[in-house]
Design a protein that fits this description.
Chain B: InterPro entries: Acyl-CoA_Oxase/DH_mid-dom, Acyl-CoA_Oxase/DH_mid-dom_sf, AcylCo_DH-like_C, AcylCo_DH/oxidase_C, AcylCoA_DH/ox_N_sf, AcylCoA_DH/oxidase_NM_dom_sf, Mycobact_Acyl-CoA_DH. The complex is a heterodimer of chains A (319) and B (379). Chain A is of the alpha+beta class. Helices cover 54% and strands 18% of the residues of chain A. The chains are: A alpha+beta (319), B alpha+beta (379).
Chain lengths: 319, 379
């Protein structure tokens, strides 16, 4: 299993190569969708962590939701998150979209009405009047950000369970990507502080520097363990925990890895720069730590219960 | 040795459901002293062992039911889910019991069953007045004489040292210059001649730990855990469990503490994101610790990365107890009620969670140098 995972990661790295964007067609050609069918956990973990690590934007979320929502693959559904977009809109209504981020110029958009970390609803939407897609540089030119605006017409509202299942996958994928990005930043910073000498020693031998980077490692590992636990259950609180932990890992990596790379880390030619710009996009692509923790806290207060779990997989044959 | 056969319930979860009434006798009571808590824990173990519940995850030769660390973890979860706390003797059992199992099977065969039956309590004699985080600088000496090994020195921060029956004492059998290479772990009877223990009151208000004095205490060769001079390796083996299994026991207790706080009247006053944060950190340590326990169960050696578990546990202890403190409002500081006293004790104890078993700064050094590969340097 571990060998298979490593093979998959290697082939994804090769596929990403010098690309800064991996479109849906390339993903389908690579057979990633088949891995996804066989083991969603493995497919999502490898693609999104590698994408994060390499600062490569992908259409992975679009492929993920397209396959989840419709088995036929001719039409790519493109994800767009827009807060309050579905408020007060009836079944066949017109949806107003304003500067929602998309990866490609879509025929069908899946609009997700997300507020903080909570999803209120989702619908498949077709282009209507004044439908425009504007390419922007934003924080990261290489992310090929496009902003969708205008009126769309609802084709179909997603049912609550369908929305929940889809959003779980989207949030887990985004969290893996954030973990990958944090790991990418940490790798660059570790390499730098081992080589960079000041005061006659590698700065990585100084405790103040060590503790910052060890802290990032702790945050990344905590997030990866939380993701593991979230895949083991469909409890939405477990997903929110993974979202919170991954968002925290990325923001700590952004803060501390840039700091220890000093002036060199601030130059555009240094390998950190690309990762930093992509990280800013990823931080804005979904719920923040605070969003997720607020949602968790609200659920706990509403239910008044903190469930004490039971470890799985006890040894067999204990009678 | 012959171990009495105990009929063990096949359905462990079902057993807990069927014995709610009997288990109620062991639920913690407000205002209970430390001595009473230790006694209640011992009685609870006696009952659980008699029912065939205790001992899962320990080898059959040592009064256990076979199985691995995962089975023990499940028992801890189920105990806490039943509203019980974990008896005080289970933490040293996890830590020292694992070392005895691996390095001194005869001692394990004698003493592990006694802890499982609630008949014995152990303590860990590692830290000294001048050797806390820098454990390798410890000064307690052991030298060979005609009667056996003679131990002299002083230990401190020995949890429950004044109540314990036995102590795992780390002592220097080599020279000071040898640092960690000249150490040996000994099994010491706390009633032996020359052993003295003085309880120390802590910020929690309890005599949680003790100073232990060793004045020419004689032990024989059967009390050497592992080889002479191998004490550091034994201590490192033991730390896997101290940082791994202890984290599991504590996360179960912290879930219970948070659950109790949720029922508090002033919980609405607590910011929801603080509650969410505490739960999130707690879930991370549980998820991380579950992976570590799986690895221990497969017989893997868990390396320096177990420091991550320890760091996360310290954070979870503090985040959860901060929420409990907020839930109590001003009662936390001003009330003499038993619930407030308990919460204060737990909050102060949580501040020690980033100190005991290797301070968080030491854990971060280990992660930096042994996990992500940064160079060793001057501190």
């Amino acid at each position: 299993m571990e060998d298979m995972e490593q093979d998959l990661r290697d082939s994804l790295r090769a596929l990403m190569g010098s690309r800064s964007f991996l479109d849906a067609e390339t993903l389908f050609d690579s057979g990633w969708d088949e891995v996804l069918e066989e083991s969603p956990r493995l497919a999502v973990r490898t693609l999104f962590e590698e994408a994060g690590r390499g600062a490569v934007a992908t259409a992975g979320l679009d492929v993920l939701i397209s396959l989840a929502l419709a088995p036929e693959r001719e039409v790519l559904r493109v994800l767009a998150v827009q807060s309050r977009s579905l408020e007060g809109v009836d079944e066949d209504g017109v949806v107003m979209v304003e500067r929602a981020v998309v990866t490609t110029d879509p025929d069908v958009v899946v609009i997700v009405d997300r507020r903080g970390a909570d999803v209120v609803g989702a619908a498949e939407v077709e282009p209507g009047t004044g439908w425009t897609v504007e390419q922007v540089a934003g924080a990261d030119t290489d992310s090929r950000l496009r902003l969708l605006s205008g009126r769309g017409r609802i084709r179909r509202r997603l049912s609550a369970p369908e929305t929940e299942a889809m959003d779980r996958m989207v949030l887990l994928a985004l969290s893996h990507e954030r973990c990958g990005a944090a790991r990418g930043l940490l790798d660059v910073a570790v390499g730098h502080v081992r080589e960079r000498h000041q005061f006659g020693v590698p700065i990585g031998s100084l405790q103040a520097v060590q503790h910052r980077l060890a802290g990032v490692e702790v945050a990344v590992e905590a997030a990866l363990s939380s993701l593991d636990a979230a895949w083991d259950t469909d409890d939405e609180v477990a997903t929110l925990v993974a979202v919170a932990a991954s968002a925290r890992a990325l923001s700590e990596a952004v803060r501390d890895c840039l700091q220890v790379c000093g002036g060199m880390g601030f130059t555009d030619e240094f390998p950190l720069a690309r990762l930093m710009r992509r990280a800013v996009v990823l931080e804005g692509s979904g719920p923040s730590t605070r969003d997720a923790e607020t949602a968790i806290g609200r659920r706990l207060v509403e239910s008044g219960v903190v469930r004490i779990g039971e470890i799985d997989r006890p040894t067999e044959g204990q009678a | 040795m012959t171990v009495r056969a105990v009929e063990r319930p096949a359905d462990l979860r079902g057993w807990f459901g069927d014995h709610v009434e009997e288990l109620r006798a062991f639920v913690p009571v407000d205002g209970e002293s430390l001595d009473d808590r230790v006694a209640r824990g011992a009685a609870m173990l006696g009952f659980l062992h008699g029912a065939g519940v205790m001992g899962r995850g320990w080898p059959e030769a040592w009064g256990g039911a076979g199985g691995t660390a995962i089975d023990r973890a499940l028992v801890y979860d189920l105990l806490v889910r039943s509203g019980l706390d974990l008896p005080e003797s289970l933490a040293p059992l996890e830590v020292l019991g694992s070392a005895l199992s691996a390095y001194a099977p005869e001692l394990a065969a004698t003493h592990v069953p006694r802890v499982l039956r609630g008949q014995e309590l152990w303590c860990q004699g590692f830290s000294e007045p001048d050797a806390g985080s820098d454990l390798a600088s410890l000064r307690t000496r052991a030298h060979r004489s005609a009667e056996g090994w003679v131990l002299t020195g002083q230990k401190v921060w020995t949890s429950l040292g004044h109540l314990a029956d036995y102590c795992g004492v780390l002592a220097r059998t080599g020279t000071t210059d040898e640092r960690h290479r000249g150490l040996t772990l000994f099994w010491v009877d706390m009633r032996a001649d020359g052993v003295g223990a003085r309880p120390l009151q802590t910020l929690t208000g309890e005599d949680e730990f003790a100073e232990v004095f060793l004045d020419e205490v004689v032990v024989d060769d059967s009390c050497v855990i592992g080889e002479v001079g191998q004490g550091w390796a034994v201590a490192m083996h033991l730390l896997q469990y101290e940082r791994g299994m202890w984290a599991w026991q504590r996360q179960a207790m912290l879930h219970q503490a948070l659950e109790i706080a949720m029922a508090h009247d002033e919980m609405d006053e607590v910011p929801v994101d603080a509650i969410g944060h505490a739960f999130c950190v707690l879930s991370s340590v549980r998820a991380r610790s579950a992976r570590t326990i799986e690895r221990l169960s497969r017989g893997e050696i868990v390396g320096p990365e177990v420091s991550i578990d320890k760091i996360l546990l310290g954070r979870a202890e503090q985040a959860v107890n901060d929420v409990v403190r907020l839930a109590l409002g001003r009662d936390f500081a001003t009330s003499d009620a038993a619930a407030a006293e308990r919460a204060r004790g737990a909050w102060f104890y949580s501040r020690a969670a980033s100190i005991y078993g290797g301070a968080v700064e030491v854990q971060l050094d280990l992660v930096a140098q042994r996990v992500i590969g940064l160079p060793r340097g001057t501190r």
